[in-house]
Amino acid sequence: MPVPPLLADLLRKLCADERASADDLGALAEVVGDPVLRDALERHRQTSVEQAERVESRLAALGLEPSRAKGLGASIGAAVTGMIELAHGEDPARAARDAYARAQRELATYRVLEEVAAATGDHETASLARRGAQEERELADAIDESWARVARLTLAARDEG
Questions:
Q1: 106 by DSSP, 3-state: which?
Q2: What does residue 66 show for φ and ψ, rounded to 5 degrees?
Q3: Are the C-beta atoms of residues 31 and 149 closer than 8 Å to each other?
Q4: pLDDT at 129
Q5: Crossing angle, helix 5-32 and helix 123-144, to 10 degrees?
Q6: Alpha-carbon span 148 to 125, nearest angstrom
Q7: Hey, CA dihedral for 45, 93, 86, 89, is it positive or negative?
Q8: Which residues are CB-contacts of 96 (< 8 A; sequence separation ≥ 6)?
Q9: Nearest CA to 38 among 27, 53, 50?
Q10: Which of 45, 86, 106, 128 has the greatest CB tally within 10 Å of its CB?
Q11: Each residue's pLDDT tens digit, 57-102
Q12: 3-state class of 33 per DSSP?
């Protein structure tokens, strides 16, 4: 049975996004300043590597390959984001915001993937998507719990500067 194009596109996008996340989260972890959040970002960095591997394995099982163009685009986007952050200086709130936005975007993509997979009868992909969505939700929750600490760190950093 052929793989629906939307399912293939979502899997390829997630593969590229998770690889970019693995690259970005280490840099964001260094900037957030809050040790609890730093640990959560570092743990999720490894989770992103594992997610990318799971998605890539699912693509292979479906007879598909990851998109080189999407991977390159995600890498370029991550590099540009890093350069912009460097230009603005280190800011814990901005780093936490960026990590939160990334987690929410990936969570949404996993949820759409889950629904598309379920609608097309691809239960293995739906299961993979549920797991990925839960992992992204856990990171978003950890960031949600850190806003007050991150805000205080950001204010202190600006008062010093």
A1: helix
A2: -60, 150
A3: no
A4: 98
A5: 20
A6: 37
A7: negative
A8: 28, 32, 34, 37, 143, 146, 147, 150
A9: 27
A10: 106
A11: 999 999 999 876 544 444 445 444 554 444 345 799 999 999 999 9
A12: coil
Contacts with 118 (C-beta within 8 Å, 6 or more apart), sequence order: 126
Query: Is residue 128 over pLDDT 50?
Result: yes
- Residue 48 Cα distances to 109, 129, 132, angstroms: 14, 13, 9
How far apart CA 96 and CA 160 sit, in angstroms, is 20
**Residues contacting residue 124 through CB under 8 Å, at least 6 positions apart:** 58, 61, 117
Average pLDDT on 135-142 reads 98
Whether pLDDT at 55 is above 70: yes
Q: What is the CATH number of domain 5-160?
A: 1.20.1260.10
The token duo for 13 is 């996008």
pLDDT for res 52: 97
Q: What is the largest CA-CA distance in the chain?
A: 62
CA distance 153 to 157: 6
Q: What is the pLDDT of residues 20-53, one digit of tens each?
A: 999 999 999 999 999 999 999 999 999 999 999 9
Reference 29, options 42, 44, 17, 13; nearest CA is 42
Contact 145, 116 (CB under 8 A): no
